[in-house]
Amino acid sequence: MSQLQGILTRLKNLQEQAKETESAQRFFEIDGEKKCQVTYFSKTEMFELEVFNEKTKSSKYQFDNIDMITIEIFDLLQS
Fold first, then answer.
1. Is 51 exposed, middle or buried (0-12, 13-18, 19+ CB in 10 A)?
2. What is the pLDDT of residue 1?
3. Distance (Å, rounded) from C-alpha 49 to C-alpha 60?
4. What are phi and psi of 40, to 5 degrees?
5. Which of 10, 44, 56, 71 lies at 20 to 30 Å from 20 by C-alpha?
6. Coiled coil located at which positions (predicted)?
């Protein structure tokens, strides 16, 4: 549960940072390896999740719900 709370806190901080600019970005990594990047766009109130994959091109997903992207990041970091 604490890892979920940590992800949620980081995403909320990202929203706060984006109030000063149009967007803000943050990376999530495991053992120094970047797993994904999250960009928050304050104008549209949308999150964009870019998942990095060694073998294929990175994939991008849009979220308008902070809880859903938190769960997606949690699952990604667990695999």
1. middle
2. 61
3. 5
4. -110, 130
5. 71
6. 1-31
Q: What CATH code is carried by the domain that includes residue 24?
A: 3.30.720.20
Number of H helices and number of E strands within the chain? 2, 4
Query: Quick check: 41 and 18 in contact, CB under 8 A?
Result: yes
* Short-list 5, 63, 77, CA closest to 13: 5
> Is residue 14 pLDDT above 70, yes or no?
yes
Helix (H) or strand (E) holding 71: helix 66-78
Domain encompassing residue 10: 3-78
For 26-64, write each residue's pLDDT tens digit.
Answer: 999 999 899 999 999 999 999 999 999 878 889 999 999
Query: How many domains would you assign to the chain?
Result: 1
